Amino acid sequence: MLTHSNEVSKESLLLHSLSSDDYIENIGPIIRTAIKNNGLDNLIETLQETVCDKEQQLQEVSVKGSSDIKLAVGSIIEVKKISDDLRYKVLEINDDLESTGKVLNEKNKVSIKYKKLYNKINETIFVLKSCLQILELTNKIIDLIGKKSFYHALKNLQDLVNIHLNEIETFEFTKKIISSVPTLHKMIKEDSFSFVKKWLGNLERHFHTIGDDCFQQLQALNSYWAETRSQNPILAQYSINSPIELSVRPDKFKTFDPFSLNNITLDSVYDSMMVYDTINELDELKEQFKKEWLIKKDRLVYPMYNSNPSQEMFLDRNQLRDFIYSLIGLLVCDRLIGVKTHFKLRSSNESREMFVTICKRLVPILKKHVDEKITTLDDIIFFKKLICCSIQILEQCDYPIENLYSILLCILQRYMKIITNNFKIELVKNMNADDSMPLVVKDMESYKSISIISWYRHTPSNNRFPKQLPFSSIYPMTCLQIQNLIKEVNEFIDDFYSYQGREILRITIETIDSVLNNIVIKNLRHKIESTIKEVIAQNLINLEFFSTSVREIENLLSYSSESRSIDSIHLTAYDNFLATRKLAEDKLFEMVDTKVEDLLDFVDYNWRTKEQNPEPNIFIKDIGQFLQMMFTSTFSNLPRTVKSLLLLRTFDLLSSYFLDFLKRSSLFTKEAIYNFDMDITYIESIINELNGQNQNQPADEDEEKSIEEHSIPTSVSLQSTFIELRQLINLLKSGTLDEFREQSIRMRKYDRIKPEDAISAIHKLEREPEIGEEANELQQNSAIASISGSGRFARFGYKFKKSTAG
């Protein structure tokens, strides 16, 4: 149907072209189309049919009109002529087309031949390009391996494997390349880790340098923070690595990177990580890296595990410092590797476990070194700075420093021993130089300085100098020593001791307490073992001030922040000072008692004398002078409580002796009683004189409290020591028991005398003898005895004065 339609269309077009005036021009395209479509024969047939149709139409027209026929004949002839011309032209065209088709056919055959050749050439070019690509990738892989760019080599190897090699897989070199892929894969993997091992070896050689850099950086940070705290007292209580310090730390300290400082990069590590991550074997890399890292660690800490326990691991401080620097370098690098690799190779737990393992072995070794090798302050300061800086560096790296911090406590204890020993040496030197005499100051400046040092709060009554202080030079010198000791301890622990404050305070308190108990008190006890009462008396005064100073020392210790959590600080030295003071008192009492007893051994009364002495006996005066000199000079600075006790004991001893001496006498005359009364009155006057001086002596608050709590004797109790003796003398002076028999009088005048003693004493009182030769002879003998006794005591008094003066 479609073909018929096309034919109708062509015929209509041909008829239209022939009927037009310029049919020659219009028919040309139709002929070309027919030639192109090999339809020239059909066209000719069509033209012939058209001619026939036209002739028929012409005949029909001629029949209808003769006039038109004539015209048509001419046209027909013309058309025929044209048709013939066209036929000839079509034939010529057909001949041309036939010849052209043959040429085209030949050329087409040549074209097909060349096309096949071209395809073969293209195939060859593709194969060659594939070969070149394989060779280029292979060479590039080998070149990248040589340049240590293992990750890029691996990526190129994967590209090589992904190339389709079907066309060239039969080539020999291709087979070799394909077979070498696993080898290249293994080479890349092994060589990448091999360079990681080399990097670790290079890093190991930098451990000491990195540790040194970290120490220098931290020292600079400590200097900066010390200056900052001095400018801002609010920050004084905060140490390095505290949250406050970290918040204000300058960026130059925060961004410190020892790797960059030593031009150490992790390129090899990163490259190896990417290689192993690409082949999904990152865990294997982590295990291999851990193994190599532990080898580096073991090589460094090897001496700790192979040193002879009886030998010191570190021969000198330089060897110790180098080891610590290298160890810090190892630990800092371990932490930096973890951070810079996002903990894919070294996790925080692994770093901590390695550090804890090292500390278990290192801490005992360092403690042993402290105990055996640290002997001077210079050594202890060097070692403390080394360990403290190490702890601060490790604390910045988030390592658990508790075990290592225990070394600081060991260092502190060792420091306490050293400064305690130095304190002892200086104190013994000062003790030996002390003359056990009251300290004399020459000007107000010295007075104020000594008062501040000694916590002596007595206000002078005048500004006349020189002035005599109650204590000797050893007291202010020891106070200054103790204050310096506490200051040195505070400075020692100020910078680095940031933790376990209560334990540090406990060590400090125990040290100060030990210094007071085992050094100060021990040497003071040695002082009071003297046989010279002046030395004992002066050191008794010193002990009084020392016991008071303990409270001031406790206040000094309470200033630390750690002590605020403690209710109160109590030094046992306070009780020991009191106990030592009691020993000194007892020793002094014993010496005074012995001296008084020695004097009393020379007392010898003639109870039968008939003569009344104009003045007290010389031995009584000797006793009185001894007591006056002792209490007004030797014991003048004694605490009022001690002095009162001494007075009471001494006069109680005298009273008891004279009372017993009177009771043991078998007979006495009124003259003897008169003389005895004069002697006792003299002793009582000495009591009143010394007691008045003692009452005028100022007492501080502690003494007043002690007087109230312990019933220290006052003037009334002191005078009461002679009451019984005085009442008995008064009874003998009365000569009868009349007043004693009266109860009211007895209770008022003789309440201390027992009835049997009163009766015995009156019965011993000699009555008036008859005048005779026997009485005169007895009186003369009594006088002779009295004179001889007086001469003997006169000689003793001279010797005593001479000995005391010497």
TrEMBL record:
Every Exocyst complex subunit EXOC6/Sec15 C-terminal domain range: 403-764
Protein's UniProt keywords contain Ribonucleoprotein: no
GO-annotated biological processes: Golgi to plasma membrane transport; intracellular protein transport; vesicle tethering involved in exocytosis
Domain of life: Eukaryota
Domain Exocyst complex component EXOC6/Sec15 N-terminal: 46-215
Membrane spanning residue stretches: none
Record flagged with keyword DNA repair: no
Sorted UniProt keywords: Coiled coil, Exocytosis, Transport
GO cellular component: exocyst; membrane
InterPro entries for this protein: EXOC6/Sec15 (IPR007225), EXOC6/Sec15_C (IPR046361), EXOC6/Sec15_C_dom1 (IPR042045), EXOC6_Sec15_N (IPR048359), EXOC6PINT-1/Sec15/Tip20_C_dom2 (IPR042044)
Alphabetical list of PANTHER family matching this protein: EXOCYST COMPLEX COMPONENT 6, SEC15
Family: Belongs to the SEC15 family.
Function statement: Component of the exocyst complex involved in the docking of exocytic vesicles with fusion sites on the plasma membrane.
Protein name: Exocyst complex component SEC15
